UniProtKB/TrEMBL annotation:
Keyword tags: CBS domain, Membrane, Repeat, Transmembrane, Transmembrane helix
TM helices/strands, residue ranges: 49-74, 94-118
Molecular-function GO term, any one: voltage-gated chloride channel activity
PANTHER family attached to this UniProt entry: CHLORIDE CHANNEL PROTEIN CLC FAMILY MEMBER, H(+)_CL(-) EXCHANGE TRANSPORTER 6
Domain of life: Eukaryota
Leader peptide range in chain numbering: none
Gene3D superfamilies in the cross-refs: Clc chloride channel
UniProt keyword annotation of ATP-binding present: no
Repeat among keywords: yes
Any one cellular-component term (Gene Ontology): lysosomal membrane
Gene source species: Micrurus corallinus
Name of the protein: Uncharacterized protein
């Protein structure tokens, strides 16, 4: 009908996914909510909030993990290359320092490409997709 045509015009892709934060008000869900007594309802809400807290903590830990290792690998790379530049400045072999820097960067590129090969979602920042997913598609 007409509403299906309107949806096709609004959504260019059929594979959109999103979270919908509106309360689910279908009949089976309302029956489940009505069957819960006060204690079970409180436990249900507490478990939901604990899950939100756990997801937030895990997300923060992943961010901390990524930040720490980016800092660590960057420090290692520049420490090794700086030592090589200092040693080779006197000997006239600065090309080796450049090759070391190139080797580190190619290693990081290879690892990033390997992660993208394993999981293609790792290719981009994903910020627009996450915003779309969290805001919902209306």
């Amino acid at each position: 009908g007409e509403t299906e045509d309107e949806e096709d015009e609004i959504l260019p892709r059929k594979d959109y996914e999103s979270l919908d934060y509106d309360r689910c008000l279908n009949e089976p869900y309302l029956e489940v909510l009505e069957s819960l007594d006060n204690k079970k309802g409180q436990r249900y809400e507490a478990v939901k909030w604990m899950m939100v807290f756990a997801i937030g903590v895990c997300t923060g830990m992943v961010g901390l993990f990524v930040d720490f290792f980016v800092y660590l690998f960057t420090r290692i790379k520049f420490h090794v290359v700086q030592n090589s530049v200092e040693d080779c400045s006197e000997k006239g072999c600065l090309a080796i320092s450049l090759l070391e820097l190139l080797g580190f960067n190619l290693t990081f590129i290879f690892l990033a490409s390997l992660f993208v090969l394993i999981q293609p979602v790792a290719a981009g920042s994903g910020i627009p997709e996450i915003k779309c997913y969290l805001n919902g598609v209306k």
